[in-house]
Sequence to fold (166 residues):
Amino acid sequence: MENDEEKVQESAPAKKKSPFKLIVIILVALVVIGAGVAAGLYFFGFKKDAATKKAGTEEKKGSAPLVGALWSLEPFIVNLADNKGERYLKVVMQFELSEPAVSAALDMLKPKIRDNIIDLLTIKTYAELMEPDGKQALRNEIILRINALLEKGRVVNVYFTEFVVQ
Fold:
């Protein structure tokens, strides 16, 4: 029996392995996996985005801005041509200019421009404005009318920043 007890005593310390080693091994494995994931994200994701951003900034330096100089007017509130004047339109717009110098000419012509646009808006009906191409047709008409008043430069686009029909 003494031999059996000695064997049990000898084998007992062998069974008690330190959990510290196991924790260290798991932590090292997690760090290695995390580093691999981070490297993969960098090479396949972030590096691509950085290259895209760099190309975008280089493109912006060499090309014209996406939107030219803007010139705005105070809001327009007008009665529409249908329903005995019971419907009205409130619209706020900004004009994109071919060059910033055009804004000085527009400032000088502001009363004529407002009058011209009011004349145009008051002949519109609710149905015309709510058609799928109604707002775009209105933009085109406004551009034609304003450009007819200008000697140099032109209005390139009209942006409606508010458009309410009631």
Remarks:
- The CA atoms of residues 129 and 135 lie 6 Å apart.
- The longest strand covers residues 155-165.
